[in-house]
Amino acid sequence: xxxxxxxxxxxxxxxxxxxxxxxxxxxxxxxxxxxxxxxxxxxxxxxxxxxxxxxxxxxxxxxxxxxxxxxxxxxxxxxxxxxxxxxxxxxxxxxxxxxxxxxxxxxxxxxxxxxxxxxxxxxxxxxxxxxxxxxxxxxxx
Length: 141
Hints:
CATH architecture: Orthogonal Bundle
Number of helices: 6
Low-confidence stretches: none
CATH topology: Arc Repressor Mutant, subunit A
Shape: elongated
Number of strands: 2
Strand order of the largest sheet: 1-2
Distance between the termini: 24 Å
Mean pLDDT: 87
Structural class: mainly alpha
CATH class: Mainly Alpha
Number of domains: 1
Order of helices and strands: HHHEEHHH
């Protein structure tokens, strides 16, 4: 499975924002310092998050970013979608006639990896920012 730094950093940054907002905008500089993420990279990520209405920017001396919804309403899957992060366990496209081996059939384990991908997507669809900042990592069935 491949999850890029873009997706991981987007989740980290929004969790930081949710934890430290205290009703006021949080600067990217502060998030950058606390999380060890490049400010330039955060600007690129937040541009996508803003375009997808997960955050709102506030201008001015005390400006920064705020969440557009409560942390409990922002699923991790929403964050990945906003930054165009795909959770994929196979290289081929689901509906492709060509398999992951480049041949006309799919590999012998293809269905296994497809099923794993569904479980991962379900997991990220179940978890939200509120879970992260509260430390709720147990399975909620």
